[in-house]
Amino acid sequence: MSLYLYCVMADTCDRALLARGLRGTALAAVRHDGLAMIVGPSVEEEYGITSEETRAHYAALLTLLADGTLLPVRYGTTAQGEEEIVERVLKPRADEFRRLLSWIGDKEEIGFKLRWRNMEPVFQHVRSSSPKLLQLAARISRTDSDASHFERIEAGRLVRDLLAEHRDSLR
Do 39 and 27 touch, CB atoms closer than 8 A? Predict the structure, then answer.
């Protein structure tokens, strides 16, 4: 069975049994040599980046964080099964994981960067939430690229501001 990976923790974690992952799936721990990879069943072949799914991934990490230090795994990472996790991830990198867990153990927060592979759904959402942007996009589509240079700059600024506004509303 394909597994969705959330994080690496010390093998003393107990919250994996309480946490819920994407689409409410139960989480479990794949354990090896004092380490645990927290996993859930993989519900898709490939994960698109949606706000619902990324929030569920993040919420699972927050629940697990109450149990101790963790090393988050990149959103959408899957493995074919427990053996692959042990043999290709936990065994070869056990010392590195222990060192990192020890190093960040007394830290308060770790930031992470989210890179979107496909921004089109984000732009569709932003366009649909802004009549001004819809009008601007229509004007730009009717004009050649040289003549619409400043309108494209204005559209970019508007998108930036709308995304910042949306981000701030999620905090």
Answer: yes
Q: How many whole angstroms separate alpha carbon 154 and alpha carbon 35?
A: 50
**Residues sharing a CB contact under 8 Å with residue 144, sequence separation 6 or more, in sequence order:** none
Retrieve residue 106's tokens: 């007394």
Q: What is the pLDDT of residues 66-115, one digit of tens each?
A: 888 999 999 989 999 999 999 999 999 999 999 999 998 877 765 667 67
Name residue, tokens 């963790």.
70
Rounded to 5 degrees, what are φ and ψ at 39? -135, 165
pLDDT in tens, 126-153: 778 888 888 888 888 888 877 778 888 8
- Which conformational region is residue 65 in: left (phi greater than 0), alpha (psi within -120 to 50 degrees), or beta? alpha
Neighbouring residues of 102: CB distance < 8 A, sequence distance ≥ 6: none
pTM: 0.62
Q: How far is 152 from 139, CA to CA, in rounded Å?
A: 10
Give CA–CA dist 142/132, Å, rounded: 16
Pairing of strands 70-72, 78-79: unpaired
The amino acid sitting at 142 is R
